[in-house]
C-alpha cells in the first residue's frame, strides 16, 4: 500500500515522502498514530501543493540571502575597540559585535550565529565568513582599529 508520511518515522522514511508499506502496518500503526495518510489522488494533490509552497518560500528566503550577500560581500567594515598601546585588545571581538558593525554600516540584519572567524584579540585586518543560507555565503573584511 502506498502512503504519504505526515511525520518522520524511524527506519521507514521522512515527512512528506511517499513510501510503499504492507497493508497491515499502514492500517494498524501508521494510520492509527496519524503518522501517514493513504496516497490517494486527493492527498497527492495536497502534497504537491504543500511542496510547491515550501519551494516558493525557500526560493524567497534564498533570494533575500543573495540580496544581502550582494550588499555586504567583499567590503571592508571598520570596528573601533579599546586596546592597549601594543594593539592587543582588552577582550576578544564577539560575533554580536561583528553583526552589529556590519548590520549598522550596511543597513541589513545579520544573525550572529551565522558568522564565523578566528579569534580576534588584536588590531588589524581580518576575513569574516557569513553563511546567510545553506547555499549562500558572504565574505567580508573587518578592520579592527584602536579607539582614541
Secondary-structure map with pairings?
Elements: E1 2-5, E2 18-20, H1 23-30, E3 36-38, H2 41-72, E4 76-81, H3 95-106, E5 115-116, E6 124-133, E7 136-146
Parallel strand pairs: 4-7
Antiparallel strand pairs: 1-2, 1-3, 5-6, 6-7
Tell me, what is the CATH class of the largest domain? Answer: Alpha Beta
* Number of individual domains: 2
Tally of helical runs: 3
Which bin fits the share of residues in helices?
25-40%
Q: Could you describe the largest sheet, including whether it forms a barrel? A: 4 strands, mixed
The CATH H-level superfamily of the largest domain is Ribosomal protein L9, C-terminal domain
**What's the helix-strand series?**
EEHEHEHEEE
Task: Give the amount of beta strand, in percent.
Answer: 25-35%
CATH topology of the largest domain: Ribosomal Protein L9, domain 2
Helical/strand content category: alpha+beta
End-to-end separation in angstroms reads 73 Å
* CATH hierarchy: architecture of the largest domain: Roll
Unreliable stretches? none
What is the overall pLDDT average? 94
Amino acid at each position: 500500500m502506498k502512503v504519504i508520511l505526515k511525520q518522520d518515522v524511524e527506519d521507514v522514511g521522512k515527512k512528506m515522502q511517499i513510501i510503499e508499506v504492507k497493508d497491515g502496518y499502514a492500517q494498524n500503526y501508521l494510520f492509527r498514530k496519524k503518522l501517514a495518510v493513504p496516497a490517494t489522488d486527493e492527498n497527492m494533490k495536497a502534497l504537491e501543493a504543500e511542496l510547491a509552497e515550501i519551494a516558493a518560500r525557500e526560493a524567497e528566503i534564498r533570494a533575500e540571502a543573495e540580496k544581502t550577500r550582494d550588499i555586504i560581500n567583499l567590503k571592508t567594515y571598520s570596528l573601533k575597540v579599546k586596546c592597549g598601546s601594543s594593539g592587543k585588545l582588552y577582550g576578544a571581538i564577539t560575533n554580536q559585535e561583528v553583526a552589529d558593525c556590519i548590520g549598522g554600516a550596511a543597513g541589513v540584519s545579520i544573525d550572529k550565529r551565522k558568522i564565523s572567524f578566528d579569534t580576534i584579540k588584536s588590531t588589524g585586518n581580518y576575513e569574516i565568513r557569513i553563511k546567510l543560507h545553506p547555499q549562500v555565503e558572504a565574505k567580508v573584511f573587518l578592520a579592527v582599529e584602536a579607539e582614541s
